[in-house]
Amino acid sequence: MLVNKSIDIPYQQLPFKGQFNVAPLGTFRNELTDQPHRHDHFQIIWITRGKGRHMVDFVWYEVEDNMIFLLRPGQVHQLDCEREGHFLYFTEQFYFTNKHDKETLYDFTNLFDNWHGYAPITISDHTSTSLHGLISLMAQEKTTAPHCSQGIVKHYLNAFLLLIEREKKRNAAETMMPFTHDARVVQLRRLLEQHYRTEHQVGFYANAFALTPKRLNEITKETAGRTVTELLHDRIVLESKRNLAFSHKSVKEICYELGFEDPAYFSRFFKNNTGISPQDFRDMMFK
């Protein structure tokens, strides 16, 4: 059970100004901190010492020392653990201020993708030392306001993200999970995020790349291990679960919001993908 009553999933507002910040874990707590909530920015939670569990989009993960959780805007999470460490948040607008940034800075959006399934990243002791140094540099630069240089902070953050990506690849190699990158799949994720409520046909997404549906499916199957339809259905099911678990919306309302015209068909779709009906899923969450 996640919470004891159905609520609209809140966006937690942090008491910091600007589009970037770094602070120790535990700096800020309110009534939402230990309840399911989400943020409208990218967030990195680095637990240097911890014990307990952390839920991300309905899956609980056991917390270990030197573990990093990467959260995209809108992902629902809930901390249920003792923890020490750091958190960073930033917006895409902060990181990519202009076209020049797009050409010179690392495209972190792929790092936050979870095509192969979400998983926290275990950090090696060697990398941990480097990350601690970058945290200190970013925090120190922030204290120089109003003379803080956004460019300097972005380059520290750039190095921080690159080190995390290397650790993610190391984790994948140790678990025999492939770690591949295709810019078209990154763009497809963005398209799915924008249109999954209204566009349910593969042809719409294939046309955006001037590809046939068959070819786009081959690309996503090779890179993500899933077809476009499977990726689309995964996203629809996730949003369905979020609404069923954390809102007062009826199944019919959720159905229409996600682009389905027939509530009965939506219920069959949900059951085919989860093994349980929408109402049974909602009831199960609050037993």
Automatic annotation (TrEMBL):
This is AraC-like DNA-binding protein. It holds the Pfam family AraC_binding. Residues 186-284 form the HTH araC/xylS-type domain. GO terms for molecular function: DNA-binding transcription factor activity; sequence-specific DNA binding. The keyword Transcription applies. The lineage of its organism: Bacteria, Pseudomonadati, Bacteroidota, Chitinophagia, Chitinophagales. Keywords: DNA-binding, Transcription, Transcription regulation. The keyword DNA-binding applies. Transmembrane segments: none annotated.
